[in-house]
Amino acid sequence: MGKALIIGAGGVGSVVVHKCCQNPEVFEEICIASRTVAKCDALKNKLAGSKTKITTAKVNADDVDDLIALINKEKPDIVINVALPYQDLTIMDACLATKVHYLDTANYEPLDTAKFEYKWQWAYREKFEKSGITAVLGSGFDPGVTGVFSAYAQKHYFDEIHYIDILDANAGDHGYPFATNFNPEINIREVTAKGSYFENGKFIETEPMAIKKVYNFPEIGEKDMYLLHHEEMESLALNIKGIKRIRFWMTFSQNYLTHLKVLENVGMTSIEPIDFEGQKIVPLQFLKAVLPDPASLGPRTKGKTNIGCIFRGVKNGKPVNYYVYNVCDHEECYNEVGSQAVSYTTGVPAMIGAMMVLTGKWQKPGVYNVEEFNPDPFMDALNKFGLPWQESFEPELVD
Ligand code: NDP
Predict the structure, then answer these.
(1) How many CB atoms lie under 10 A from the CB of residue 367?
(2) How many Å separate Cα 236 from the centre of its chain?
(3) Which residue in 151, 181, 186, 190 has the fewest CB atoms around it within 10 Å?
(4) What average pLDDT score do residues 114-128 get?
(5) Which atom of ligand 1 is closest in space to residue 187's alpha carbon?
């Protein structure tokens, strides 16, 4: 059916490549491109024998001309951006120049400010519309599946959704005293930022990790979870009619938080460059270099993740509570594709989002968040491609 150019060959990129190769009717060809081409070649070799034809390339995704040259050479139907959020705009520019569809899993962030906002990418709406190409923003798990869950709940079970709690639990144990499950720089920028939630039309900011609740997660048990800012709240606040409040919660162990506090207190999580032995270094980037590579956690991680959304609202004048979630097992993911569940739960929805575009189910010129498309074919594909979901109409509530 089509060809995808996958940019980024890290933890998430590896899962996207495996999943595209499990779906050769849709992904007849893929090109894996990244800064370090050896990682792309290693993936290609691992999947030798797959029906999907695989090529590899070196690309600097910060450079629009380099990207345009690669797209013109490879002629993909869609670019799947699983590099870093810093590259979103350059890749979107290259897609515009070559009229190729675009998909990512994380919103653009400027390198020098940890700010999670869609405004930079939403500014491309008219240009994508005029070029007749589709950009799907945030097609990982959160953002991604959480938005699809919201669209599904709205379509099938509610006249109005009033409250959304997004709950992201990771009960995985990798055996290291401290490591992050995806890119450490992006992860630490996210969790050291101020928290926020949406209520009555505006965002209310909190100090980092200031609000904590305990929740009894299906198949995982009781966990401490903390209120964080998370990018899908921004688009859901606009796209879910009647919404009064959206909160995002993520679980952290006391051990993780203690390590993080120490690193923060000594200045290791700062993104301000400092002089070190005659050169400028960014402490957080140096920290990334000494922490375990997330891709290496796969064989060591045991336990499960549970990510989902609890909706409260009304249908036919009656109150409705609805919880939809996926439970994913780190070891099963590793056995299937050689990655732990955090990369898996991001890479599978990225492949599915690209499949939605290539099969025409999610094609409309412009720039869209996932909840703006029909959720039904995506929900079916989650069950088929390794992220089955479960639902409950009598969930335990957060408060
Ligand atoms: P990794 O750091 O493991 O991989 C990033 C990849 O991008 C590497 O292959 C890296 O190359 C490549 N890359 C970085 N900069 C460039 C560049 N300038 N040009 C070309 N390639 C580049 O990250 P992850 O796989 O863990 O994460 C990928 C994305 O997924 C991130 O944007 C992250 O925010 C997002 N994510 C989304 C989630 C969701 O649920 N929505 C959850 C988790 C992650 P090299 O090997 O040379 O460094």
Answers:
(1) 22
(2) 15
(3) 186
(4) 91
(5) 34
Interval 372-389: pLDDT, tens: 999 999 999 999 999 999
Q: If residue 86 lies in a helix (H) or strand (E), which one and from where to where?
A: none
- At 106, is the pLDDT very low, low, confident or very high (cuts 50, 70, 90)? very high
**How many whole angstroms from 325 Cα to the centroid of ligand 1?**
25
Q: Which two tokens stand for residue 214?
A: 């305990």
Say what the pLDDT of residue 204 is: 97
The values of phi and psi at residue 7, to 5°, are: -105, 120
CA–centroid distance, 11 to ligand 1, in Å, is 7
The b-or-e profile of 22-43 (16+ CB within 10 A means b, else e) is: bbeebbbbbbbbbbeeebbeeb
Q: Is 36 in the pocket of ligand 1 (CB under 6 A)?
A: yes
225 lines ligand 1 (CB under 6 A): no
Query: What is the reported pLDDT for 114?
Result: 65
- Compute the distance between CA of residue 142 and CA of residue 16 in angstroms, rounded to an integer: 16
Assess whether pLDDT exceeds 90 at residue 61: yes
Number of H helices, E strands in the chain: 14, 18
Task: Please identify which residue in the block is written with the tokens 């379509």.
Answer: 155
Tokens representing 188 are 């630490």
Q: Is the CB of 294 under 6 A from ligand 1?
A: yes
Burial of 17 (0-12, 13-18, 19+ CB in 10 A): buried
70, 57 Cβ separation under 8 angstroms: yes
| C-alpha–C-alpha distance, residues 108 and 118, integer Å | 7
Interval between CA 155 and ligand 1 midpoint (Å): 33
pLDDT score recorded for residue 185: 82
Q: What's the token pair of residue 73?
A: 């050479």
pLDDT score, position 210: 94
Backbone angles phi, psi at 80, to 5 degrees: -100, 110
Does pTM top 0.85 for this prediction?
yes
Phi, psi of 222 (to 5 degrees): -75, 135
């800064």: which residue's tokens?
Answer: 35
Q: Is the CB of 341 under 6 A from ligand 1?
A: no
- Residues with Cβ < 8 Å from 61, sequence gap 6 or more? 7, 8, 35, 67, 81, 83, 87, 90, 91
Q: Are 302 and 203 in contact (CB under 8 A)?
A: no
Q: Evaluate whether 89 touches 111 at the Cβ level (below 8 Å).
A: no
